[in-house]
Amino acid sequence: MRMSWMAGGALAALLATGPALAQKTTLVIGMQTQDAGVLDPHINSGTPGKALLNWMFNGLVRIKPGQASPDQIEPDIAESWTSSADGKEWTFKLRQGVQCHHDLGEFTAEDAVFSLQRAGSKDSSAFSSDYSAFDKVEAVDKYTVRITLKTPIPSLLGQVMNYHGGNMVCKKAVDTLGKDGFARKPAGTGPFVFAEYVPQQYVKLVANPKYFRGEPKIKEIIYRFIPSDAARDLALQAGEIDMMIGRQEQAWVDRTNKIPGLKVIAFGPAEMSVIHLNMTQPPLDNIKVRQAIAHAIDRAGIQQFRGPAISRQAVSVVPSGYFGTHETAPLLPHNLARAKQLLTEAGFPNGVTIKAIHTTLPGMMGFIEATQAQLKRAGITLDITPVEHPTFHQQIRQDLSQLVHFQAARFPIADVYLTQFFHSRSIVKTPTAVTNFSHCKVADAEIDAARTEQDKAKQVALWKTAQEKIINEVCAVPVNEMLMLWAFKDSLDLGYELKGSLNLGPPITEQTRFTK
Amino acid sequence: MGAFLVKRMLFAVVTLFAVLTLVFIVVRIVPGDPAQVILGDQADATAIAALQQRLGLDRPIWEQYVSFLSGALRGDWGVSLVTGRPVIREILDVLPWTLELTAVSMVLGTGIGVPLGVWAAINRNRMPDYVTRIGSLIGLSFPPFVSAILLLIIFSLALRWFPVISGNRATPWAWFQSIMLPALNLGLIMAAYITRVTRSAMLEVMQEDYVRTARAKGVPWTVIVWRHALRNALIPIVTIVGLYLGILIGNSVLTEIVFNRPGLGKLIIGALNQRDYMMLQGMMVIYTLIVVVVNVLTDLTYALVDPRVKLS
């Protein structure tokens, strides 16, 4: 009898611990894509790829999980670092015992040097221009890396963090598999290891038992490619996926938040919608016409249209929250009467017509149609030619559109946005072109000076002046910022508070787990 | 029969060559730069130029064409500009999924459409005829992506009979669950077409003298309908089934996306969005081959169902 009581107690205890034993350890994620693209962190710059690669790779440093501000940088593979007084020499001490995936051995200074050199080469990296200021990268010893710069740059740490070219790849993997082979079996040092790629279906990652921060609680990630918005929604509601990228629509957020067991989180960095005005083409070569456009746009109205909980008004020509953003920049206020008056003064009392090539992507199309309606009230006719997204990207770079609506987030330092969109070196159709669609060149001196300025206060002041000059010249009209939106099951605990993610997807760390 | 097949093969080779050339030109005329798409919107002009060079996109068009044709003749269709994997492997990985979906949809479409068409014809201007005609009209009016969402809401979300994500072939039951809804989605629309064609073909045949004679001789009604009348009505049905295969493959694009099934449809949409020239070229060859083969099979079927048809 006593034995049966003991057996009963043991059974009860076992049943009580049953749910804990059955706790879910496979995380299924739905991503809006047909395919994740090339699985090489130095090549892939698309949202679907960046989110996935982020779970496999580390940088020398990283921004704390859930944050997107460079103020929150902390050690990653490097445990400490120092820089010379002139900011041109940086030395990183690496952790010992960090292991490469697929049993490729310890990650050492040799791997870090290889990785940064690879990121800086245009033959192997889409981000090579970010490393143009690098002079030398050397392994001082097995665990020490020294970077020497030709000139100081605003954020060296931003170039060695787990973002774009800063992701650390294992040399042996690239040497053994070759560049294309590496993309089929990527090897980093992160919490999750590449396991399987099934075309058009998913990428499977498994927990890295040798991860230097400890073995992840999630044992398997299935990263499903689900391009249809409706199918992703239904799969989440049916419980077939646990987490998914959402739609940038207020109605979708409201609807999803009402479903029991689901929640939506909006986080940064926000993508800013900016109207770039080509100052070399009439009538936009007349500053009064550009000012009229700026006065005609109602940022509050656009925010209301796009959704107050998922968007915010732009504050400057650099998105809010970046290091160096002029948070109280003198943007021209909405004033229809002033817009009409400026058009008359410019010699267009009957209004003007501006031609714009625009992508057919639904979210961006909605924005430009709302803007078109606002401009119409001031007598400005926006003649939109809708084209497919790749065509849009090609034609705006061929300088074929008088007005370009571009929506983008960048590394959150003012220098990046200012350089790519407003420095004369970046003007489209030039050999060094990036995305300066307006042909703006009024703030080159300040942007260049700020890049090498070591005094942070002076650097910020230079960026502030640059932003004021660009705004006064009306090279572009910043309008609206759209946050990233992901939906989750309530039972998924990311292990941190999600406020931002540079890689545009929530980091899945060793702490991420299901609570039931 | 042999001469017929040889003639069709020669015709297929000419068709393939024409399609290859046309596709090669068309995909390059369409604006959009694959290097730009691959590298993203932050890439500078230098990086884009370097990738264009690596992909061979900076070479003169005629040189790219010669290289493409010589590769195609050797069975080398190149590698995807986006994923770097061989085009032929990418296509063969997903081709069985599309063929399987098409085959099951055809079976469902024909299996539902033919009996319904016959039923409507033999009950002309009575309730079964009205119901069938209205039903088929509804089927014809539904875009496949709308019916797909409706099927998912009813059978996957409300009833939980089938999964939303249809890509599981681990067990026969999982395969059945995965294919049923997408195939039903395509099959029901096909059934609507087949029903109408079968009905009108049967109505015509049922007026023939031999049907009247058979009835006068006391041949059982079911034998008259299914053995004599239907067999003679099969030519237009076979024609529409053959033609419909092209529509099925076209409709499978949206069906594969909504049901999240791998397949040629998903592959071609991705290739178009990313301007993956090599992939598009390879896929056009496959689509052309499928259409040519189906046409030949349709012609062969004519001879099977109607001995009066001679293949020459």
Please write out the topology.
The complex is a heterodimer of chains A (516) and B (312).
Chain A: H1 2-21, E1 26-31, H2 47-53, E2 61-63, E3 73-75, E4 78-83, E5 89-94, H3 109-119, E6 134-141, E7 144-149, H4 156-159, H5 171-184, E8 192-198, E9 202-207, E10 220-225, H6 229-237, E11 243-245, H7 250-257, E12 262-277, H8 287-296, H9 299-306, E13 311-313, H10 336-345, E14 352-359, H11 362-377, E15 380-387, H12 389-397, E16 403-408, H13 414-422, H14 444-452, H15 456-473, E17 476-489, E18 492-493, E19 513-514
Parallel strand pairs in A: 1-10, 1-11, 14-15
Antiparallel strand pairs in A: 2-3, 4-5, 5-7, 6-7, 8-9, 9-10, 11-17, 12-16, 12-17, 13-17, 18-19
Helix pairs in contact in A: 8-10, 13-14, 13-15, 14-15
Chain B: H1 2-29, H2 34-39, H3 45-55, H4 61-73, H5 87-122, H6 127-141, H7 144-158, H8 172-206, H9 209-216, H10 221-258, H11 264-273, H12 277-305
Helix pairs in contact in B: 1-12, 5-6, 5-8, 5-10, 5-12, 6-8, 7-8, 7-10, 8-10, 10-11, 10-12, 11-12
Could you describe the 3D structure shown?
Chain A is of the alpha+beta class. Chain A has 2 domains: 3-245 and 490-514, D-Maltodextrin-Binding Protein, domain 2; 270-483, Dipeptide-binding Protein, Domain 3 (Dipeptide-binding Protein, domain 3), CATH 3.10.105.10. Helix content of chain A is 31%, strand content 23%. In chain A, the strands form 5 sheets. In chain A, strands 1, 8, 9, 10, 11, 12, 13, 16 and 17 form a 9-stranded mixed sheet that branches. In chain A, helix 13 (414-422) packs antiparallel against helix 14 and helix 14 packs antiparallel against helix 15 (456-473). The longest helix of chain A has 20 residues, at 2-21. Chain A is globular. The relative contact order of chain A is 0.15. By secondary structure, chain B is mainly alpha-helical. In chain B, helix 5 packs antiparallel against helix 6 and helix 10 (221-258) packs parallel to helix 11 (264-273). The chains are: A alpha+beta (516), B mainly alpha (312). Chains A and B meet through helix 5, helix 6 and helix 12 of A and helix 2, helix 3, helix 5, helix 7 and helix 11 of B.
